[in-house]
Specification:
With 155 residues, the protein is mostly beta strands. The protein is 0% helix and 54% strand. Strands 1-2-3-4-5-6-7-8 form an 8-stranded antiparallel barrel. Strands 9-10-11-12 form a 4-stranded antiparallel beta sheet, with no helix packed on it.
Length: 155
Amino acid sequence: MTTPEPGPVRHGARPPDLPDGPGVPVPGHGAWLRRGISRDGGPLVEDREVVWVQAGPYYADSRGFAGTTSFDGARVHFHHLTGEPGEDTGTFRWDGANLVERGTNPDGGTFLEVWTPLPADGGPCGSWSGPDHQVVRVGCHVVHVDARAGSYWRL
């Protein structure tokens, strides 16, 4: 798999200060590579490749959870329907081409994540699910989630 070179995110640095307030909805479709995460106000780091794909209201995250998103006018809710249970809630802001997400995990911990768009190259886009799995595809990017794990493929 080929991933883009890191953008201006400085790993190990303090996350950027962004104004609080209502956020923007997630894009209707896209594929995103995580460039860094800050947990509970700590430094921005990246310890593994994480890809999130969004096709309409359906999403899949290669960390092992998938489901639907909703937007209440200020916050995005990631409803986990497959894989890791729970619901993440956060706000998104654009920072150039990157999306910066601030949110709360099901366990109450807070996070800040920086997401860089992956080229989707057009092509098929959609979500398919069964009793114990969900697959979301955006162009050449596919994330499969089941009860055990999440997997990312670039076709």
